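DM between two lab members

TW: hey, do you still have the Protein-export membrane protein SecG entry open?
JB: yeah, one sec
JB: this one, 82 aa:
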Amino acid sequence: MTALKITLQVIVVLLSFVLTLLILMHKGKGGGLSDMFGGGLTQNAGTSGVAEKNLNRWTVIIALVWVALIIGLDMMTKFNLG
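TW: and the structure you got?
JB:
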């Protein structure tokens, strides 16, 4: 494996953990698993609109980078570039 391919794989793993944490930080919409684990207790202390928008932006940006890296790794494997 080339150094580039290994580096991209490590970045994908790190982004997977970051993406998981960002998704778990989102405010629960109610009626799901978030309420079962205490999400209903913190409804009064909700985040501000700006913080929620920034969290959404970061989640989407990191998800798009994550998908792009996975597609790039697949192309590298498919065309024997790595």
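TW: got it. The CA atoms of residues 22 and 42 lie 17 Å apart. The helical segments are 3-25, 33-36, 49-78.
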